[in-house]
Amino acid sequence: MSQPVFLFDLDGVIVDTAVYHYQAWKRLAQELGFDIDEEFNEQLKGISRVDSLHRILEHGQVVLTEADFDRWATQKNTWYLELIEEMTPQHLLPGVADFFANCRTNGIRCGLGSASKNAPKILEKVGLLEAFDALVDGNSVSKSKPDPEVFLKGAELLGVEPARCIVFEDALAGIEAAEAAGMKSVGIGDPTVLTQATMVIPGFLNVTVNDILTKINNQ
Ligand code: BG6
Ligand code: MG
Question: Around Cβ 106, how many Cβ atoms within 10 Å?
Answer without folding.
Answer: 12
